[in-house]
Records
---
Amino acid sequence: MAVDLSLWQPRTHVGELVKAGKIRSIDQIFAMNMRIVEPEIVDVLLPNLKHEVLNINIVQRQTDAGEVSQFQVLVAMGNEDGYVGVGIGKARQVRIAIEKAIRDAKLSIVPILRGCGSWKCSCDEPHSVPFVVEGKSGSVRIKLLPAPKGVGLVAGDVAKTVLRLAGIKDVWTWTKGDTRTTINFAKATYEALKATYRFRV
């Protein structure tokens, strides 16, 4: 979704630099170790993002007036080319909850490192993970292992969606814990992908 720069009023220094055209790539932001706290920054620098709703739950919270029911939405977002994010939103209406989840996913966008880390494949194309990485959230642990070209995404449906949006085409996975908990499964996969960027090769 394109952003109307004339209507956007940046609230942070990073936002001002982006609007002024001094930052033209999201890689510059991560290279300078800056935080993204405005979703408009992501809209401007990564205009081709796609998102998918992974889960919708009804949750309740206690207030002075009694219990209030809300919808909790989990969204995965990525450009299928090295950037991925996962977000959660809550609201009384599904549409508003989805919008909040998309906003949260944009603020959690991270770069991932892709490569060809399988000894069975030496194509040097960025189709898998470059090395074994692990992610954890709640009781769920997931390990991503490099796979040769043509294997595909050997993973559960939730992890498969997150991996595809990140631009991973071939990978083997090992999981432990209650993977039926969609939020923890998605977050663990996100954390594993995030771990690829901790080691620059």
---
Amino acid sequence: MEKRVDTTLFIGKNYIEYEQLDSTQLELERLIENQNLAEGTVVTCKHQFNGKGLAENTWSSEAGKNITMSLLLKPKTILIKEQFIISQIIALSIYDFLKEISIENIQIKWPNDILINEKKVAGVIIKNSVSQQKIHQSIIGIGINVNQSQFDDELKNATSIYIQQNQFYNIFELQSSLLQKIEQYYLKIKGGERKKIQEEYVNKLFKYKEFSLFYDNINKNEFIGKIMGTDDIGRLVLMSNNELKYFQMKEIKYL
């Protein structure tokens, strides 16, 4: 079943919807292997039973109640060392999309989890392919909890738009709005607004310029640090003991 999203120039114009999938990301990868898909292709489904999360985690989603989709971009002007800008625009797109439906207290938890009142409402996973030192294509998996009202016990830090707003939403309408936001930010990259995007992202970071407790997965110790932002390659920059420290994903976690 295919639908067109008419609020965008190209993102979502090739819109492929399934009743159920193991993973929208895996399905998009399978489709790419067999055909030359247009940039902006979206794969979505009502029930995803083996969704992918960061660091080999899974993304659990109740059937028919949430946004589960993957998007194909071909940002061939972005250098490998600049690839974090893709993560930033997706996080900002989700942030603005939530703001548009009057949700408050939104934060971006580095690198690209989205929180409402410090509870996770959305997750993003990005798989980039490179060619000649540039990003050849990006497969962007997005999961947003929309109408789900209950979560498994192990997901104590999860929330949904329904829980926050006490009302149900039309999934397809929300998804259309989100795709429009993504396209707007993506075009800003092409328009040379990268520095502005990076500043906007940092200003919306969870615990930005606050002292917080972290765990260093490399040195196996807890420490107090203040988030100062991110560097050009997407590392989290912390101030600890009057020294700047830089962390890649998986090297650090919040406590």
---
Amino acid sequence: MRRLLRLGLVVAVLVAVYLGFTFVQVYQAARGDEAQPAEAIVVLGAAQYNGEPSPVLQARLDHAADLFDQGLAPVVAVTGGRRPGDSATEASASAGYLIRAGVPESSLRLESGGENSWQSLAATARFLRQEDIENVILVSSPYHALRTERIAEEVGLHGHASPTPNSPESGVAQLVKMGRETVAVGLGRVIGFRRLVNLDDRVGQVRSDVGSG
């Protein structure tokens, strides 16, 4: 019994150290900016309301438009599908916003089927490869920066995170999301980010079954 307790304590300490190290990485990525000349800018989707980007998505799009105006990449790929009850996809709402901001329609690429970051980036990687594009700038909220880089690597993109500098997510809310990202990145690096998505789906299904029962 004592051996088991000692083993459990050692495991708990190792997990805590690993997650603590991962949190530092998530925090540092959130505060960094790796924007540099690339072949495309990829904007991770967020909520939209009847075709209008939410404040979170708008902040990401404004940053992407600024990077495009700086001439860092000639293509902007916007991502995100349609949530239940939505009249538009996140990608189409993003595209409309960027066109109004002055980004030419010919420079836009839309990925409108993804339901999460992994699906969106995997689908985006497939159609960007058809144009021989793999070096990209990844635009999302600060807390999301490290995970987007790791997922991009897993799906075959060479990604440089450039978090939006004016995200409306801040304070305690952002720290909570960083905590969630720490767990997601920590698990994803161990089991793979695709498996992490599948695991999250199964957990969600179990919760749904329990709730309906």
